């Protein structure tokens, strides 16, 4: 696959603003492992090969098990995810796909039963940000693995 254009070079100011927003998630109340799962699931849904590749490697570096990484796509059928993670993954799918008629109150209440309002808010920002990155990655055909050395992802051992 050949990248269509380098959007970071073409729009450096905007790229930096989105990157700064992403880096702000480090101060989020959402724990890293849950954040990783959300980024992986949204990237799967959106078909962003670059982001999926990146976030699987990050999750591995953060200590996520390979089996759980394989199971993200089938999280509903898997017994490897706790209720809090299930709620976050369901919320990720709903916010990413935005169903006609909006997100059902029943889903919001289920999520609210597992996460605080602050956590739901931070989680939603995390989903919005990964969706923005996914859209750029898909639109410009960002090449999976092309930034591994730059981001230290070669340490994941998933070459």
Features:
AhpD-like, mainly alpha, single chain, about 160 residues
Care to describe what's here?
With 159 residues, the chain is mainly alpha-helical. It has a single domain, classed as Up-down Bundle (AhpD-like), CATH 1.20.1290. It has nine helices and no strands. It has helices at 7-10, 12-24, 32-46, 49-61, 66-71, 83-97, 105-112, 117-139, 148-151. α3 (32-46) packs antiparallel against α4 and α6 (83-97) runs antiparallel to α7 (105-112). It is globular, with a radius of gyration of 16 Å. The two termini are 17 Å apart. The mean pLDDT is 96.
Specify Rg, calculated over alpha carbons. Answer: 16 Å
Distance from first to last alpha carbon: 17 Å
- The CATH homologous superfamily is called AhpD-like
Main pleated sheet: none
The SS-based structural class is mainly alpha
Q: Could you say what the CATH topology is called?
A: AhpD-like
Ranges where pLDDT stays below 50 over 5 or more residues in a row are none
H and E order: HHHHHHHHH
Total count of domains: 1
Mean pLDDT: 96
Q: Quick one: how many beta strands?
A: 0
